[in-house]
Amino acid sequence: MKEKKIFISYLRRGSGAAAKGLLQLMRPKQWVKNGFVLAPLIFAGEFTIPHSIAKSLFASFLFCIASSIVYIINDICDIERDRSHPVKSKTRPLAAGTVNVRQAIFLAMLLVIILGAGFLYLPSTVIVIGCYMALNTVYSLYLKHQPVIDIFTIAFGFVLRVYAGAEALGVPVSGWMFVTTLCLALYLAAVKRRQELLFRGSQSRKVLDSYTVPLVERYAEVSSTGCLLFYSLFVITERPNMVVTIPFVLYGIFRYWYIVESLEGGESPSDVLLNDLQLFVTVILWLAVCMIIILQSGV
What we know:
Blueprint: H1 2-13, H2 15-26, H3 39-43, H4 50-77, H5 79-83, H6 88-91, H7 93-96, H8 101-118, H9 123-141, H10 149-169, H11 175-200, H12 213-238, H13 246-262, H14 269-275, H15 277-297
Helix pairs in contact: 1-2, 1-8, 4-8, 4-9, 4-10, 9-10, 10-11, 11-12, 12-13, 13-15
């Protein structure tokens, strides 16, 4: 009850500032990552079925709630380090002082209640989401300080997103989709570490002391090659009529590397996707072509 009164008091002091601070704490820009939850809806060919669409969208919404809880926990754990960071000290509500720890905890509790209600509708999906939250809680407390493991933990979170989407629909997911998702996520995570190391040094993350730029570049190169290879094998062996989508994937990887090398982006994959028109259009066109081909093939 005490936390509730503090939370309400905070809202009354300045509803606009309060709403902005709490919304920033939930990191809505990062919700774009939860689009991976919709992958089984597309590739299972159920994107024309209203009931399936509703289930997938609700599963994605629940993952947005869960990821926000994880971000809140992570920000609480990193509050002191973020306060000494030149950017995070201004952009992270807890580090900037626009939201205090008690308010953050209460917001997380509210989100947990919403997630618990979602269990009544999609129990198997929420179980997968629970695994994601448990993994990321351990990540925030320990795994993010372990080199290599930290990157794989982030990447496995994307695999769980795909699995949650499949559970929501009750459909199997090809092993190709899992390994392609894993490689893509490893690529994005490695690039993120490269940019942090290159422009921030080890100031933002202690684990960066264990990396070098050439090392994470090799990780990124291997992962991007694996992503293209496994996606191409998936298309050629299981969906040969989708071979026309391979150039979109190839261009997307090339464009992302260009943004990283020439435009110094990539520290936030979500920002890159939302801010770079060419990459955004490439993803939309890839999705559109995939959906048209799957619809025509009746799969």
